[in-house]
Amino acid sequence: MEKKIRIFQTPYLLAENMAQLFAGLVRDESDRKASFSVALSGGSTPELLYSVLGDHYSASIPWKDVNIFWGDERCVPPDDRESNFGMTYRALLRKINIPENNIHRIRGEEDPQRESQRYASEMRETIPERGGLPVFDLFILGLGEDGHTASIFPGETGPVFPEKICETVINPYTGQKRITLTGQVINNAARVIFLVTGKKKAAVLRDIIKQLPACQTYPAAFIVPAAGELNWFVDEEAASLL
Ligand code: 6PG
User: Of 17, 35, 18, nearest to 26 (Cα)?
Assistant: First the structure.
């Protein structure tokens, strides 16, 4: 799998370029009269992208053709400051004209086990499948310093949960319950893009890109789309050890 890495001078330039790419991908699908399904990530770097999209692309993207999902969610109500949906709503959703039915929120306030089963069904009902798994047109991910991505943390049963498409987990550092899509869904996407910024991510990014031994404990290192593209959008600080 060829890893396409694009390095940007600043996080804002990364977000602007990612927004341009996102707009082009949606328009291409829209021209094919197809809907575009995207799974969003939490985290500060993805948040900057959502702000750029909300502030500058509210009119130029056919949001009616976009189905928004989340790759993971904290098990909190949507108005909690920890909520990935709440962050996305403030940065993007409240600024665009998108049909309510196109917003597929993980209900963090519900019982995690029941909600992960419900969400798996919602994905299957909404997104075309290949090999029995939903195929996202785009899966946006962040990267933790420990190599986690979405809410797949090091040391979980099997680095990418081979059985299920949606799983409940506990953040090992905070004890917070979370719901996460699993590696097999991520790897089934047509395109996966990691957004990584900051010096703190330089070592983990180097380990993964250079496939150093340490990356064997990083769930993000197991994100290798079977038939899709894997792209890394990183800033110069995160790329400083490449
Ligand atoms: C979350 C994300 C998580 C995040 C990374 C990177 O819910 O927090 O799913 O995987 O993307 O922790 O976050 P930063 O970009 O803020 O470092």
Answer: 35
Whether 72 contacts 84, CB under 8 Å = yes
User: Taking the model in full, what pTM does it have?
Assistant: 0.97
Residue 23 CA to residue 52 CA, distance in Å, equals 11
What pLDDT digit, counting tens, does each position of 130-145 carry?
A: 999 999 999 999 999 9
pLDDT at 158: 60
User: How far does the centroid of ligand 1 lie from the alpha carbon of residue 84, in Å?
Assistant: 9
C-beta separation of 176 from 74 below 8 A: yes
Paired tokens of 70:
């989340």
- Helices 11-31 and 44-56: crossing angle in degrees, nearest 10, is 60
Q: CA 1, CA 172: separation in Å to the nearest integer?
A: 30
C-alpha 88 – ligand 1 centre gap (Å): 13
Q: Pairing mode, if any, of strands 177-181 and 72-74?
A: antiparallel
